[in-house]
Amino acid sequence: MKIRALIIDDELHAREEMEALLGETGAIDLLGSCGNGIEALQLINRLRPEVLFLDIQMPVIDGFELLNMINQEIMPHVVFVTAYDQYSLKAFEEKTLDYLLKPVDSRRLTLTIDKLRKTIGENRPPNYETEAIRRIPCLLGNRIKLIQLGDIEYISTGPAGVHAVTATDEYFTEVTLKVLEERTALLRCHKQYLINIDSINEIVLLEAGLAKIRTHSGKFIPVSRRYLKIIKKKLLI
Question: Which residues are modified to 4-aspartylphosphate (predicted)?
């Protein structure tokens, strides 16, 4: 059975070259390719690839930062592709499966494919050292905007997806609520909301153990019974 893969590289010619090389191996089912982190997260969340051929140096979000934004439950194996040998050591420190130096040598790629077959065949899960997310990539028209965590009042999720809300704006992001809860300091206050504790202006207590948070900009966020105690404890009240 072929290995389901994505190529992520900001350079079109590099993606096309890798597509051709992977096609020659006969071992890869190429699900798609893309040139930035937002598109990558969208494809990973939707297609659930088994492996990423991931460029390290990309604008806005580099390869290491992208890994921090992937849900661990669907984390694929990663083969870093880089033109810079100094990144190879960090690639192994991140416990990626392998790395390839550009321009990619077909014989070296064959060794990587063999390693992938063995790892996937033995059902060995990826084991990467993910770090805290410092900023959230959001889509704004045809631009990617990086929102610093300190600027966010809350995160919400619904039928239209996940949105990061600041005092003045609202931005769509492909990073899931689960990942943001696990890898940022944002607190869960409701099944559909995460709150930046520094944005809380007041907590309004309601009937039946419910509450709502008023942010410094005047927005109201629901708080469920399950999370009210946690938030009060965090605020030392």
Answer: 55
pLDDT of residue 209: 87
**Of the candidates 15, 12, 45, 14, which has an alpha carbon nearest to the alpha carbon of residue 30?**
15
Q: How many CB atoms lie within 10 A of CB 83?
A: 13
Cα–Cα nearest to 66, from 163, 184, 175, 187: 175
Confidence of residue 132 (pLDDT cuts 50, 70, 90): very high
Dist CA 9 CA 66 (whole Å): 12
CB 189 within 8 A of CB 222: yes
Residue 142 pLDDT:
80
pLDDT in tens, 167-207: 999 999 999 999 999 999 999 999 999 999 999 999 999 99
d(CA 194, CA 145): 20
End-to-end CA distance of the chain: 57
Strand 161-166, strand 200-205: pairing:
unpaired
What is the pTM for the complete model shown? 0.88
- Tokens describing residue 179: 């990942």
The domains located in the chain, with CATH, are: 3-122 (3.40.50.2300), 142-235 (2.40.50.1020)
pLDDT computed for residue 199 by the predictor: 96
* 12-25 helix and 106-121 helix, angle to the nearest 10 degrees: 70
